[in-house]
Design brief:
- This protein has one domain.
- It is built from 5 helices and no strands.
Length: 125
């Protein structure tokens, strides 16, 4: 008889791993917003907050500013798997071999909320 893995236990373990790798999202988003303040004057005026979706390469921060997530990384000189996207809050730090991709959803939702806070802070002075 083969052992069937406990999906709930796997999900908990995966979420714990993701949480550990993404424990300072507010700090990384603040760093990313400051980076954009210096690299792209007026960037907040080019973000459609109603469309903002950090899980989308087209509707994320870089996607909206640079016509695509990867175009943004290249234009800004950021590397996808090194110092870059997750260090500046443009993406979360992904973990290899995550079985359930939905385990990332709450982290992307949190990332979106943090970006909205930074955008509103800049727009409202």
């Amino acid at each position: 008889m083969s052992h069937v893995p406990d999906i709930d236990q796997i999900n908990k373990e995966e979420i714990n791993k993701i949480s550990m790798k993404n424990s300072n999202l507010s700090g990384t988003v603040a760093r990313g917003a400051q980076f954009l303040d210096e690299a792209y004057f007026g960037w907040v005026d080019h973000i459609n907050i109603d469309e903002l979706n950090l899980r989308s390469c087209c509707k994320c921060i870089l996607g909206q500013l640079f016509n695509g997530y990867f175009n943004g990384l290249t234009t800004l000189g950021l590397l996808y798997n090194d110092l870059g996207a997750s260090d500046y809050g443009f993406d979360i730090c992904c973990i290899p071999n995550i079985i359930n991709r939905d385990n990332y959803r709450p982290f992307y939702d949190k990332l979106r909320d943090l970006w909205l806070t930074e955008i509103r802070r800049r727009k409202n002075g």
